[in-house]
Write a structure and sequence with these properties.
The chain has 431 residues and is of the alpha/beta class. It contains 15 helices and 14 strands. Helix 1 packs across helix 4.
């Protein structure tokens, strides 16, 4: 039977998803985080789903892109980029602004377009896979592993959001010292079987974070450990931390900002450096690799432009002998499924991928994805292999509609000011 792959409808649903009070160098996560669910519908009535950032500037670009896809073929994945390139972006509002709480580097109009396209590309791949009876990994060339390993993503964390702030409760408790971080790691290991741990740093003075990593190394000997301060340190501080932890760190992620500073640290320490901040586009690769600034690139299909671009990035990394893994920001099951499919196709994936998914108490799937021994099994079902629950989507969309606008753009500094009215996002380097 011949399928009609014409796109007849594209539905965009902005949602607000519960987020715990996780700390980073910019502040703390808000009680709810915006995401965007993209649904592409074909003439045969097949729906494919994607997920990406849901802040206002993403929505403003996603809406005209959705309109222009009507009548195109769901298989025309390259055409997504052509259509997106035709869209006008307010560069004065976007260029050189820190994006998503400052946790993914500097924004540009091109990065914004790619972040929007990624959600549409995944939705098209999901629909195409369902139409052809093939899993997304088959559309990407086929899997080379049956399960993808993920790392426990540890955060310094308040016990709860400030009193009086509407939020969802969690049972993780506080983690504001080494003992709290170790207890959090134990819960991750018991609940999900993770065997590697990453701590989001840049929150407390470096000596305190060194102590936390040392405590993890003592509690979980032989387990790979990572530390990510999101560029909060100077070059000299970065070298000090690297030297103090060189015997236990798998890699140090974005200790300082900028390719030149990262290269300086890399030259002066033996600890591998990873990044999701100084290499976030193909144009940034040449300088970083020729300077030896990074030894591991943490891809994120949300802002590299989708799953196929992620494969291209991995191929370039292999060419230069640079490792590759995956970065994560707050996300739901649609994104975890997409991450797992593309990760399953990448040869030489030697580092466990990041995922916020265990932190998210809410999802849009009928059945949550599960971690077994820290791994997610790669689905062989058509498309992404997940089913979206429309009632859950509507519930989270209603929350977005009912919001007064204060939560529709992620702002970790604003969330911190609720707890500490005098808080100002620290200048970088912080230490």
């Amino acid at each position: 039977m011949t399928r009609d792959l014409t796109i007849t409808d594209v539905r965009l649903t902005p949602i607000l998803v519960a987020d715990p009070p996780l700390l980073n160098t910019s502040g703390v996560h808000q009680p709810y985080t915006p995401r965007l669910i993209v649904e592409v519908v074909t003439a045969d009535g097949i729906s494919g789903f994607g997920e990406t950032y849901g802040d206002g500037k993403y929505l403003e670009l996603a809406r005209p892109l959705a309109d222009r896809l009507i009548g195109r073929q769901v298989s025309d994945l390259g055409g997504l980029f052509t259509v997106a390139d035709e869209l006008t972006v307010d560069r004065a509002r976007v260029d050189n602004q820190l994006d998503v709480g400052g946790q993914r580097g500097v924004q540009t109009a091109d990065k914004l377009r790619l972040s929007v396209v990624s959600g549409f590309e995944v939705a098209c791949l999901d629909a195409l896979g369902k139409a052809l009876g093939l899993p997304v990994h088959a559309l990407l060339g086929g899997k080379v592993r049956d399960a993808v390993e993920y790392s426990a993503y540890l955060f310094y964390k308040y016990a709860a959001h400030p009193e009086g702030v509407p939020c969802e409760k969690d049972d993780w408790g506080a983690a504001v010292d080494p003992a709290g971080v170790v207890e959090q790691a134990r819960k991750f290991k018991e609940r999900y079987g993770f065997t590697s741990f990453k701590l989001k740093g840049g929150v407390f003075p470096p000596d305190e974070e060194i102590a936390a990593v040392r405590a993890l190394a003592g509690a979980f000997p032989g387990h790979p450990l990572r530390l990510d301060p999101n560029g909060a340190w100077s070059v000299e501080t970065s070298i000090k931390v690297a030297d103090a932890l060189r015997d236990v760190l798998e890699y140090l992620e974005d200790p300082t900002l900028g390719t030149h500073a990262m290269a300086d640290v890399a030259r002066r320490t033996g600890v591998p450096l990873a990044t999701n901040m100084c290499v976030t586009t193909f144009a940034e690769i040449k300088e970083a690799f020729t300077q030896g600034a990074v030894q591991v690139v943490l891809s994120d299909h949300h802002y590299w432009g989708g799953l196929r671009n992620t494969q291209q990035l991995a191929a370039i990394c292999r060419t230069f002998g640079v490792g590759v893994s995956m970065h994560s920001n707050t996300h739901l099951g649609v994104s975890l499924a997409a991450m797992t499919h593309v990760a399953s196709t990448v040869p030489g994936l030697h580092h466990a991928c990041d995922s916020h998914y265990p932190w998210q108490s809410e999802d849009v799937l009928t059945e949550r994805l599960t971690f077994e021994d820290g791994r997610v099994t790669v689905s062989d079902a058509p498309g992404l292999g997940v089913e979206v629950d429309r009632e859950k989507v509507e519930f989270l969309h209603r929350r977005w509609l009912d919001d007064d606008g204060s939560l529709r753009d992620r702002d970790d500094a604003a969330a911190m000011r609720v707890a500490d009215p005098g808080w100002v996002a620290p200048a970088v380097p912080r230490w």
